[in-house]
Amino acid sequence: MISTPMTKNKATTAANLGFEATLWATADKLRTNMDAAEYKHVVLGLLFLKYISDSFEELYKELKADKNADVEDTDEYLARNVFWVPKKARWGYIQANAKQPTIGTLLDDAMDAIEKDNKRLKGVLPKDFNKYQNSLKEKLGELIDLIGTIGLGDEENRSKDILGRVYEYFLTMFASAEGKNGGQFFTPRCVVQLIVQMLAPFKNARVFDPACGSGGFFVQSEKFIEHHAGNIGDISVFGQESNATTWRLAKMNLAIRGIEADLGSEHADSFLRDLHSTLKADFVMANPPFNMKDWGQPRLENDKRWKYGLPPANNANYGWVQHFISHLAPNGMAGFVLANGSMSTNTSGEGDIRQGIIEDDLVDCMVAMPGQLFYSTQIPVCL
Questions:
Q1: Same-domain pairing of 302 and 261
Q2: CATH no. for residue 148?
Q3: Are 25 and 31 in contact (CB under 8 A)?
Q4: Which one of 32, 130, 284, 376 has the fewest beta carbons within 10 angstroms of its own beta carbon?
Q5: Are residues 231 and 376 in the same domain?
Q6: Nearest 10 degrees: CA dihedral of 291, 296, 297, 303?
């Protein structure tokens, strides 16, 4: 049983909490009767808008002081890796109209305008604020005022990773508020950190997560690389996510951190439509859905990925394991989370699949984790 990293992480997290917790408490108070699953897109969308607007405004002021620069030239911003923000999407305009009854429509128009001028964000940003302006009423304006009190995207706050801290804390709290469903988009940071530290991704590596959720493994890989005197540009990042809203969440999460990632042109099922079918990765990191039923086995009986045997139709665990193996480069390594039952099951040929994998000497180590770590299940899991 490996429990030390968990204990240390809890202490570290508690020590770092400050304004994030206060911000969350205030934001959550404004939620009224809206489900956390819906509310997270409202809050995280506004955080994203505030961040890119802050970054834009800082460069805008710098360019304004340069007689040779055109402050309304999109190329000036894109060349500096800053998202172009049209006038009607800038935070000052949004906040000035926060108490208007049409604020939901104004936010939808702002997100639309940003997507049109920034191809990387096409189809990514939330655009249903109008739907929520009745349920939130004046609280949407209060939420805008609240987020307006924190600097997110200027150089000073970028250096402190203010947005990263707020975003990750909010993702954690939304997963907790959603309970079981929260596990679909969020893996606890302590679990992600342990896998990343065990695998230790190196320079020029290809990192792949075929069940990427909101992109936690990529974020922690970035932090690991930076801690070892590198930068996120030193690795190539690939991912896939089947849930449309979670796929958009991952795209936003990575965009605000400047992480260039290929998550495919849209959301898609990793088994039935592998968007990276030819990829051979140096590192595969994943937290796939546990004991997934109806994963499409009848349509995939002769798939080349099942080198060690056909996974049972009512449990995808060993489908995921073989999917990971199929994507590994000759010297590649995979680190992933599974339910503890996967270590001993002999149901429907799973024992034979596991035996073949072990006999081919593919298993380096297994880590038994304590229970109560995941929002999606209280059972203990293994790495």
A1: yes
A2: 1.20.1260.30
A3: no
A4: 32
A5: yes
A6: -120
Coil, strand or helix at 330? strand
| Burial (0-12, 13-18, 19+ Cβ within 10 Å), 207 | buried
How do strand 381-382 and strand 338-339 relate by DSSP bridges?
antiparallel
The SS3 assignment for 321 reads helix
Please list, in sequence order, all residues whose beta carbon lies within 8 angstroms of the beta carbon of residue 65, skipping any fewer than 6 positions away: none
Out of 143, 177, 211, pick the residue that ends a domain: 177
**Cα dihedral 14/20/24/27 (nearest 10):** 170
Task: Write phi, then psi, for 368 (nearest 5 degrees).
Answer: -90, 125
Confirm whether pTM is higher than 0.85. no
Q: Which residues contact 267 (CB under 8 A, 6 or more apart)?
A: 241, 242, 243, 244, 246, 247
Give the integer Cα–Cα distance in Å for 279 and 276. Answer: 5
Residues 168-207: tens digit of each pLDDT? 788 888 888 887 777 777 888 889 999 999 999 988 899 9
* Helix, strand, coil percentages in the chain from 3-state DSSP, rounded to 5: 50, 10, 40
Residues 171, 212 within the same domain: no
Question: How would DSSP label each residue in 264-294?
Answer: -SS---TTTS-TTTT--EEEEEE-PPTT---
φ, ψ dihedrals at 291, nearest 5°: 50, 45
CA dist., res. 185 & res. 182, Å (int): 6
CB 63 within 8 A of CB 69: yes
CA proximity to 181, closest of 11, 35, 361: 35
Question: Are 133 and 206 contained in the same domain?
Answer: no
pLDDT in tens, 275-288: 999 999 999 999 99
